[in-house]
Amino acid sequence: MASLPFFLVTPADEYGCGYYRMRWPFESLRRLGLAQGVISSYFLDRQTLQELDPDVLICQRVIEEEQITRLMAMRNETSAKFIFEIDDLITDMPVDNKYASRFHKNTADRLKRAIVLCDRLVVSSPALAAAYGSFAPDVVVCPNSLPDKPWASLFGVRRRGARPRVGWAGHMGHLGDLKVLYRVVRATSHLVDWVFLGAVPEVLKRYSLEVHTHVSLFEYPAKLASLDLDLAVAPLEIHPYNDAKSHLRLLELGAMGYPVICSAGVGAFDYDLPVTRVENRPDAWIDAIVAAVSDRDALARQGDALRQAIHDHWLMDGRAAEWVAAWGLPR
């Protein structure tokens, strides 16, 4: 009987990227008996690396010079195959994205030097494969999915209020995306109750019924469910960065049973999911929201259909074979 592959998983951070792309997929594989291994928040020293003797070393978003130097050294210290993971177009970020300033001016050069040291590049979207695939001898697209626990068991309560509750959830990195909604929220605030979760500008708070402060990654699913939305909105500005993003926002909102209106023409949302896509024009968004809330029975059915599609195809345990294939390079 063949032994299970031993993965050494090294996430880049302890935020969404580190969990959705590294920790949670690995924990799913280990729990399902498809892999063994360890997670390390830093590159291991030579002795520990050789004692573990991994089959595959998976690193994420390596762009610091000391990391690149250590990655180069590790290639001579182990016979393991090396996989590079990334799920953001960090070389082309919108000016309104608050995280853009955290990256170096020569990030593209650093990224290329790190990726060429690896045997495979694994990315979350086709656009990322197109952007960075030439740096690697092999590239695999493995889309994001939701961990079964807790996402499969949560459900938002709809029709909590007399007026439809329409909401958005996000963080500081989405201020540019929120500009799409400025005129939309003002024009529809007499018809629906707007609910926001996360950092939003005053221009939107002014017309909102509720504004909830940002919560931690682990509190987020339950908090999202507690918003009890009749309709969720997911605007994204048209930008290469968003073309390369995954559809995680649709998955999270849809898992709650919330029907979703999202931006059309953005690669992040180019997936076969039962959502309503509209152009990023205020009048198009206003018309779509007004039409949607005019039939709350139909709206609820759309939410049910989206939740079912996610349960059928986009929970992490159900996509375990895809993760094994993406990470499981033979020695």
Protein architecture, described:
- By secondary structure, the chain is α/β, with parallel strands linked by helices.
- It folds into 2 domains: 152 residues, 3-Layer(aba) Sandwich (Rossmann fold); 165 residues, Glycogen Phosphorylase B (Rossmann fold), CATH 3.40.50.
- It is built from 15 helices and 12 strands.
- The strands form 2 sheets. The protein has a 6-stranded parallel beta sheet with strand order 2-1-3-4-5-6, sandwiched between helices. Strands 9-8-7-10-11-12 form a 6-stranded parallel beta sheet, with helices on both faces.
- Strand 4, helix 4 and strand 5 form a beta-alpha-beta unit.
- The mean pLDDT is 93.
**CATH homology group of the largest domain:** Glycogen Phosphorylase B
Structural class: alpha/beta
**N/C terminus separation:** 17 Å
Q: Roughly what percent helix?
A: 25-40%
Gyration radius over CA: 21 Å
- Basic shape: elongated
Defining traits:
Rossmann fold, 2 domains, six-stranded parallel sheet
Task: Give a short overview.
This protein has 331 residues and is an alpha/beta fold. Helix content is 38%, strand content 15%. β5 (120-123), α5 (126-132) and β6 (139-141) form a beta-alpha-beta unit.
List the helices and strands and how they pair.
Elements (H helix, E strand, L loop, with lengths): L5 E5 L5 H16 L4 E4 L6 H7 L3 E5 L4 H10 L6 E6 L20 H9 L4 E4 L2 H7 L6 E3 L6 H4 L13 E5 L5 H4 L3 H7 L4 E5 L4 H4 L4 E3 L7 H7 L4 E4 L5 H4 L4 H8 L4 E4 L12 E3 L3 H12 L2 H18 L6 H8 L4
Parallel strand pairs: 1-2, 1-3, 3-4, 4-5, 5-6, 7-8, 7-10, 8-9, 10-11, 11-12
Helix pairs in contact: 8-13
